[in-house]
Amino acid sequence: MKKIRCAIYTRKSSEDGLEQEFNSLDAQREACAAYISSQKHEGWVLLPQHYGDGGLSGGSLERPALKHLLQDIADGLVDQIVVYKIDRLTRSLADFSKIVDTLDAAEASFVSVTQSFNTATSMGRLTLNMLLSFAQFEREVTAERIRDKIAASKRKGLWMGGSVPLGYDPDGRTLTINGVEEKTIRTLYDLYEQYGTVREVKAQADVLGLRSRQRTASDGTMTGFNPFDRGHIHHILTNPIYAGRIRHREKVFDGQHPAIIDPERWDCIQRQLQDGAAKGRTRKTAKQRSLLCGKVFDETGDRLTPSHTKTRKGARLRYYVSHRLIKHSGEASKDGWRLPGEELEQKVAHVLQQGINSPSFIGRVARNATASEIATAKSKAQTVCARKAIVPSLDLIERIDLGLGQLSITLDTERLGALLELDINDTPQDDLAITAPFQLRKRGVETKLILADQPGDRDETLIKNIAKAHVWYERIKAGETFSDIAATETTSKRRIQQMIDLAFLAPDILRDVIEGKQPIGLSSDWCLRHEIPSDWSEQRQLTAAL
Question: How far apart (Å, rounded) are the C-alpha atoms in residues 392 and 309?
Answer without folding.
Answer: 26
